[in-house]
UniProtKB/TrEMBL annotation:
GO molecular function, one term: translation release factor activity, codon nonspecific
NCBIfam families named in the record: prfC, PRK00741.1, small_GTP
Main localisation: cytoplasm
This protein's name: Peptide chain release factor 3
GO CC terms of this entry: cytosol
Similarity annotation: Belongs to the TRAFAC class translation factor GTPase superfamily. Classic translation factor GTPase family. PrfC subfamily.
Binding site for GTP: 14-21, 82-86, 136-139
UniProt cross-references to PROSITE patterns, sorted A to Z: G_TR_1, G_TR_2
Superkingdom of this protein's organism: Bacteria
Pfam families in the record: EF-G_D2, GTP_EFTU, RF3_C
CDD domains membership: RF3 (cd04169)
Length: 510
């Protein structure tokens, strides 16, 4: 029980460029997982964070895949899941959020709540994931703290509890005041970074004192129950780049964030106190180590004490597999996990055995729910530049469909495979990885379809009649499920009205 309560599994969510990857790196430094944070300030090939390992991430300076990093501090094990901020990777982010117990929402002090932040917040709300807010970049010119707090409260319909306060902003920035402990973190040196200088009972400018008193009176006091229920967010101001607020954020996660929670499952929710080992695969990633062509399934452990070598049965095919080399991730380093506890994320090396959405358990009597596939918003055909690479292309597309990077559809008529993605940037990642990891040069061409829907019916005869009449627009996904390919979104509604006995689903649970 102590091991369970000492776990904090959380994600960092934000709009692109809010400073999420920088904050991730500084959390790893503070937790001792890495010893140098120079990558974010370095030049050339080193200008990237430790969590961004793909070639396209290094070229563009963005995160395009979720990363898992574990670190320990003061007896607490933190499992940090860094997610892509870009909306084109919302599927990966959504599935990652199913594996966490809390989240840190990063907001740019100059820009406030942005579109992707709001979308990700709504996903957290659907799953009642409690959120700590970190207002970043207060060392630069930004909006007034009251304006930012009011926007969080109004746009996200949340109570806000300011836990710290910026003393000035931009050119007048003089540190961050800790409201609960009456102390201030002060900038030092020509770079104006935080180097550990804490001033107790600080002498603050009168304007800052007035703002803090007004904030105390005008906003809700922190209530742990309301936070864990998702009704209130504690708000910390800081600068990840200059190290302000990072230590306070870790302390808040340790003190307030929930440990492992019950997970939705059939036939009943799974409690972390359960003795049977259970978990679910929320991500599969190939070629994290290109030299070894590895393939890792990321499993969130939900109950029981996992030990290396034990046999678990995946829902996919029902045959027990022995997990001999489970991995824990420490920044870019890996360690074999001799044991793991609820809340931990372990990597299971496999070769196509495990897929996203698979449940693993000792008795195969449970299935976790809530990991969806989303209908693609962009459909393309892949064109090989070298026709002799067909086999490699098939392998690459299968791999990436298994990971959730893309979806692959096999039309009932014709031999051209159709690739489906949620956002344009996913197509760039697809082509980049085909060339870098599979040595396959390929291009994309327009497909005669715009979107797709999974189709089903209560009576198989109704589904068969529909499929026979619309065979030119029918395809199968890689699991063999029937899919209707539509030329326009309007056509989906039109066809659905014509066939009321057939269901057209924009999501399909794995």
């Amino acid at each position: 029980m102590t091991r369970i309560s000492d776990r904090r599994t959380f994600a960092i969510i934000s709009h692109p460029d809010a400073g999420k990857t920088t904050l991730t790196e500084k959390l790893l430094v503070a937790g001792g997982a890495i010893h140098l944070a120079g990558e974010v300030k370095a030049r050339g090939a080193n200008r990237r964070a430790r969590s961004d390992w793909m070639k396209i991430e290094q070229q563009r300076g963005i995160s395009v895949t979720s990363s898992v990093m574990t670190f320990e501090k003061d007896g607490i094990t933190f499992n940090l899941l860094d997610t892509p901020g870009h909306e084109d990777f919302s599927e990966d982010t959504y599935r990652t959020l199913t594996a966490v117990d809390s989240a840190v929402m990063v907001i740019d002090a100059a820009r406030g709540i942005e579109a992707q932040t709001r979308k990700l917040f709504e996903v957290c709300r659907l799953r009642s994931v409690p959120i700590i807010t970190f207002v970043n970049k207060v060392d630069r010119e930004g909006r007034a703290p009251f304006e930012l707090l009011d926007e969080i409260a109004d746009v996200l319909a949340l109570d806000v509890a300011p836990m710290s306060w910026p003393v000035g902003m931009g050119g007048t920035f003089e540190g961050v005041y800790d409201i609960a402990h009456d102390r201030a973190a002060r900038p030092e040196g020509p770079s104006r970074e935080f180097h550990g200088k804490i001033e107790a009972a600080p002498a603050l400018p009168e304007a800052a004192r007035d703002e803090i008193e007004l904030a105390r009176a005008g906003y809700a006091a922190f209530d742990e129950g309301a936070y864990r229920h998702g009704d209130l967010t504690p708000v910390y101001f800081g600068s990840a780049l200059k190290d302000f607020g990072v230590a306070e954020l870790i302390d808040a996660l340790a003190a307030y964030a929930p440990g492992p929670r019950s997970q939705p499952a059939e036939p009943a929710p799974v409690s972390p106190e359960g003795s049977e080992v259970t978990g679910f695969v929320f991500k599969v990633q190939a070629n994290m180590d290109p030299q070894h062509r590895d393939r890792i399934a990321f499993m969130r452990l939900c109950s029981g004490t996992f030990r290396r070598g034990m046999k678990l049965t995946p829902t996919g095919h029902g045959k027990p597999i022995a997990v001999h080399s489970p991995i824990l991730f420490f920044a870019q380093n890996r360690e074999l996990a001799d044991e793991a506890f609820p809340g931990d994320i372990i990597g299971i090396p496999n070769h196509g055995t495990l897929r996203v959405g698979d449940t693993l358990s000792e008795k195969a009597a449970v299935r976790f729910t809530g990991l969806p596939n989303f209908a693609p918003e962009i459909l393309r055909r892949v064109v090989l530049k070298d026709p002799t690479k067909t086999k490699q292309l098939r392998k690459a597309l299968d791999d990436m469909a298994e990971e959730g990077v893309t979806q692959v559809f096999y039309p009932e008529i014709g031999a051209n495979w159709v690739i489906g993605v949620v956002g344009q940037l996913q197509l760039d990642v697809l082509l980049s990885r085909l060339e870098a990891e599979y040595k396959v040069a390929a291009g994309l061409e327009m497909a005669p379809f715009e979107t797709a829907r999974w189709v089903s019916a209560d009576d198989p005869a109704d589904l068969k009649a529909f499929a026979d009449l619309n065979r030119a627009a029918m395809a199968r996904d890689r699991d063999g499920n029937p899919v209707f390919m539509a030329k326009t979104a309007w056509e989906v509604g039109y066809v659905a009205d014509r066939y009321p006995k057939v269901r057209f689903a924009a999501t399909r649970e794995r």
